[in-house]
Amino acid sequence: MIARTWVGRIVAACVVAAVIGAGVFWWTRPASKPATAAAPPPPEVGIVQLTAADVPLPLQFAGRVAGFRAVEIRSQVSGILLKRGYNEGAVVNVGDVLFRIDPRSYEATLSRAQAQAAQARAALTQTEENYKRVEGLVAQKVSAQKSLEDAIAARDQARAAIQSTQADVQTATLNVEYTVIKAPVTGPTSITSPPEGTLVQAQQTLLTTITQLDPAYVNFTFTDSEMRALDEISKSREKQLDSDDVKVELQFGDGAVYPQLGKVDTRSRTVDPRTGTILIRAVFPNHEGGLLPGQFVRVNVTGITMPDAIVVPKAAISQGPLGAFVYVVEADNVARARQVRLARELVNGWIVRKGLSTGDRIVVDGVMRVRPGNAVRPVPMAPPPK
Questions:
Q1: I need a labelling partner for 193 at 20 to 30 A (CA). Which of 26, 107, 147, 222 fits?
Q2: pLDDT (tens digit, 9 = 90+) per residue, 229-283?
Q3: Last-in-domain residue among 156, 175, 208
Q4: 144 three-state secondary structure
Q5: Would 1 be classed as within a structural domain?
Q6: pLDDT digits (tens, 9 = 90+) for 317-336
Q7: Domain around 177
Q8: Do both 246 and 336 map to the same domain?
Q9: Is there a single domain that holds both residue 259 and residue 359?
Q10: CA distance 121 to 118
Q11: How many other CB atoms sit within 10 Å of the CB of residue 243?
Q12: Local structure of residue 42 (DSSP, 8 states)
């Protein structure tokens, strides 16, 4: 009985010793190395190789139509307004009779001036005959030299009187003509005018205003920076830009396009201190009267090209803390971020002013899969149309 007890204790001690040894071995054994995961392949990205080219540079501005000129019609003589020869607001042509002023007082003045002119002519005839007679008598030494001098003076005074009376006749004739007021230009008239029977004051009373619509002006503005950029583009060309190179197209608010092109007429040589802009004026044919003064239009300027420009697709451009950047794939197929300076947005991309050059390969597809400094698998793509 005692022997069995000792045998049991020995067996239990062996079991405890085995368990303790197994635990010590478990905690003190060297850690096994985890299996190394296979590195993922470089991401596939679409790239475009950049080339420089002459790129059309479309420009768009807000503009306003202005009449070619607005002519204020005023009378050159005073009098009672007898008749208006047109409907208010109607279009009149050059030479159309607009107003008639009572001419009777001016006709009477003309008659008096003509009568005085006739008297002056008669007096001149008399003085010239007297001069000839006295001249003969003096030559025969029958009359004194003083008589000849008096005859010459009388003749010269009669000649001066002729000139004076002729000027009076001419002035009176003009005043009679001024009582009929004609249109100096073609265009629509204003919708208000003095009623018939009004006393018109010379040079003061505004009778109507005629706005010449053909051709029509369109005014729009450039900023100072835009003007300097265009000057730089012009200087970089072999042949500098002129008004014949630049075409102007008009677009109405509903999207309709004016059927005829215009051209730049002139520009202001000063900057508006209130807006910092420079006024540009274009001229358009307006035979049908489709352009009305005060009308707002969209001005599209074409014909300007930027030489040796680099265009980057919009999908390639990202924004960071330092501004716009693109991923450039270098010769070892490693993508690296590069800051760029953008010049102008086009339909198919951005013109880059600084940061890229011809031959650079940039990522245009799969930008989100790129990690700066890591390798990529570039796949060429078609460049954007210019």
A1: 107
A2: 777 777 766 666 666 678 899 988 888 899 999 888 888 888 888 888 889 899 9
A3: 208
A4: coil
A5: no
A6: 999 888 899 999 998 889 99
A7: 74-208
A8: no
A9: no
A10: 5
A11: 15
A12: P
Taking the model in full, what pTM does it have? 0.60
Same structural domain, 81 and 153: yes
- Residue 83 confidence (pLDDT) above 90: yes
d(CA 361, CA 364): 9
Domain count, the chain: 3
Q: Cβ(309)–Cβ(233) under 8 Å?
A: no
Residue in 304, 338, 344 with CA at minimum distance from that of residue 324? 338
CB contact burial 245-271 (16+ within 10 A = b; e otherwise): bbbbbbeeeeeeebeebbebbeeeeeb
Q: Is residue 23 part of a domain?
A: no
The 10 Å Cβ neighbour count of residue 80 is: 14
Strand order in the sheet with 263-267: 247-251, 296-302, 59-74, 206-223, 277-284, 263-267
**Contact call for residues 233 and 303 (beta carbons, < 8 A):** no
Question: Could you tell me the end-to-end alpha-carbon distance of the chain, in angstroms, rounded to an integer?
Answer: 107
**What type of residue is 68?**
F
Contact 261, 248 (CB under 8 A): yes
Query: Domain of 147: which CATH number?
Result: 1.10.287.470
> Does residue 35 lie within any of the structural domains?
no
Strand ranges (DSSP E) for 154-205? 180-182, 187-188, 199-200
Cα radius of gyration rounded to whole Å, the chain = 49
Q: Quick check: is 11 in a domain?
A: no
Answer yes or no: do 189 and 248 share one domain. no
Helix/strand/coil for 382: coil
Contact (CB, 8 A) for 128 and 158? yes
Are the C-beta atoms of 350 and 315 separated by less than 8 Å? no
Shared domain for 79 and 150, answered yes or no, is: yes
CA angle (109 as vertex; 108, 110 as ends), nearest 5: 90
CATH code: domain of residue 358: 2.40.420.20
Q: Which residues pair with 200 in a beta bridge?
A: 79
User: Do residues 332 and 375 touch, judged by C-beta distance below 8 A?
Assistant: yes
Last residue of a domain, one of 159, 182, 208: 208
